[in-house]
Design a protein that fits this description.
Layout: E1 11-12, H1 15-26, E2 30-37, E3 48-49, E4 55-61, E5 64-70, H2 83-96, E6 110-112, E7 118-120, E8 137-138, H3 140-149, H4 153-170, H5 177-189, H6 194-200, H7 210-227, E9 235-236, E10 246-248, E11 254-256, E12 264-265, H8 268-283, H9 291-308, H10 318-329, H11 339-351
Antiparallel strand pairs: 1-3, 2-4, 4-5, 6-7, 8-10, 9-12, 10-11
Helix pairs in contact: 4-9, 5-7, 8-9, 8-10, 10-11
Domain Aminoglycoside phosphotransferase: 209-275
Pfam families: APH
GO molecular function: transferase activity
Length: 368
């Protein structure tokens, strides 16, 4: 198993790369004089620039000598394991430093590419991503069809393929306890996860008053400590595997969209996300999981457990079901639900936390 503990190796930045950056940032009138680690004399022979080691730079700009400090961040276990974590901190510093009295001025902002070139980012306002356009239709359309017209054998086969895909994905494991704990901490406390979702509900909310939210949060704190003993389960995950992030291809295969919340996490995150939506669609025809959507739910769980042998996942699934229940019960995200559908989801997310092991074969007991 590999580790993420060294996610910020030394950079191989030579003086020509630094000179090139200065000219891209400030124009052709910029000329490097010398560079070296802070606290040391200028060293023209510098080759390695380690993360967290500020670099003192002397350069000339249109005939006037200037000095600057080039800084990066070192990866650590405090939510800075990945370069995109560190990028967010540096973006914040670049954007907000100028607005504070007595704060040093920001002269430039950029990134180091895979060839150790320094690339300036000039006056950023927003970022974007460009990806391929895949053929296919949103998987939720299949669920709408099943709700109205019933299940096809191909629907069960696709669900089995979802489980086999998850089994392959989750087979990639990583030995990094800090990263697993981070994912559990984020699950409960992040703005787009449980506590953030709780805050997004209207307060007070007649279907789920404040005292029930408070009790729910207290139970989740206990689960946070319980899941601290499962750090060996860290695996590659999607992180947002729901019917609106799946494209069904013309040949019956599928593609996935919008991988979220990092590359590594708890496998229960993915399977609870999709099976929660099978539960949701079933609740539109009554207060239980039954019929075609129960078949999809059972097919997914049974196939996944057969493929992985990971029965331990039943000991970690409950708080992930709470997260997804809060999402799909939300009056903000799903304003069209009936009162009965929301009440069923609220009962489910409270009751599922009471068992040490999720009883996937008897899910309806959590809806009572």
């Amino acid at each position: 198993m590999s580790s993420t503990k060294d996610r910020s190796p030394a950079l191989q930045i030579d003086l020509s790369s630094l000179q090139d950056y200065l000219q891209k940032q400030f124009g052709t009138g910029a000329r490097l004089i010398e560079a070296g680690e802070m606290g040391s004399a200028g060293k023209q022979g510098m080759k390695e620039f380690g993360y967290g080691k500020p670099l003192h730079i002397r350069f000339e700009l249109d005939g006037e000598e200037k000095q600057a400090v080039l800084s990066t961040m070192r990866g650590d276990s405090f939510g800075h394991q990945f370069y995109w974590d560190r990028a967010a901190i540096l973006m914040f510093q670049y954007e907000t430093g100028e607005s504070m009295e007595k704060h040093v001025s920001s002269l430039g902002f950029g990134y180091v590419d895979k060839k150790d070139n320094l690339v300036p980012v000039v006056e950023p306002r927003e970022f974007f991503i460009l990806h391929e356009m895949a053929e296919g239709y949103d998987y939720f359309l299949d669920l709408e069809r099943i709700k109205k017209k019933g299940l096809k054998q191909s629907d069960l086969e696709l669900t089995k393929e979802f489980s086999r895909w998850m089994a392959r994905l989750h087979s990639r494991r990583l030995d990094d306890a800090d990263l697993y704990l981070r994912r559990i901490r984020n699950l409960i406390g992040a703005s787009e996860c449980i506590f953030g979702l709780v805050d997004s509900y209207p307060h007070p909310y007649d279907l789920f008053p404040p005292e029930r939210f408070e009790e729910l949060e207290c139970r989740l704190i206990s689960w946070r400590w319980k899941l601290g003993s499962f750090t060996h389960r860290l695996a590659a995950v999607h992180g947002d595997f729901h019917p609106w992030n799946v494209l069904v291809q013309p040949d019956g295969d599928f593609r996935v969209l919008d991988r979220s919340r990092g590359e590594w996490g708890e496998p229960a995150d993915d399977i609870t996300t999709m099976t929660s939506n099978y539960l949701l669609y079933s609740l539109y025809s009554g207060p239980s999981l039954k019929g075609d959507f129960e078949k999809l739910y059972r097919t997914m769980w049974d196939t996944y457990l057969e493929e992985t042998g990971d029965w331990e996942i039943l000991h970690t699934a409950a708080p992930f079901y709470v997260f997804r229940a809060l999402v799909i019960a939300s009056p903000k995200w799903y304003p069209g639900h009936s009162r009965e559908v929301r009440m069923s989801l609220f009962r489910f997310m409270e009751n599922v936390l009471q068992d040490e092991e999720f009883d996937y074969e008897n899910i309806n007991k959590y809806l009572g």
